[in-house]
Design goal:
By secondary structure, the protein is of the alpha+beta class. The chain is 59% helix and 14% strand. It folds into 2 domains: 36 residues; 40 residues. A two-stranded antiparallel sheet has the order 1-2. The model has no long low-confidence stretch (mean pLDDT 83).
Length: 88
Amino acid sequence: MSSGRGRTPSAGGAPARSRTAEGKRLAVLILIVLVAIWLVAFIVSNSESVKVSFVFGDVTLSLIWVMILCAVLGAFLAWAIPRFRRRR
């Protein structure tokens, strides 16, 4: 009787991976590669410099850094505002 619960042993005696698990891992790997390619293309296409004006001065940054800064600031505000409102 086999204790592998329905899995067939491979040549080394260890249970063989199921095809669905291998398929899921391959799909995740392909997705990671596609996201990485998209991210590199996104960064390259948004690498030009832009002038950002603040109340007390100006600064020139790469557009991708401005976008990342805005995304981080937005995520922080989305996290912080509900917590501030609960305390009142």
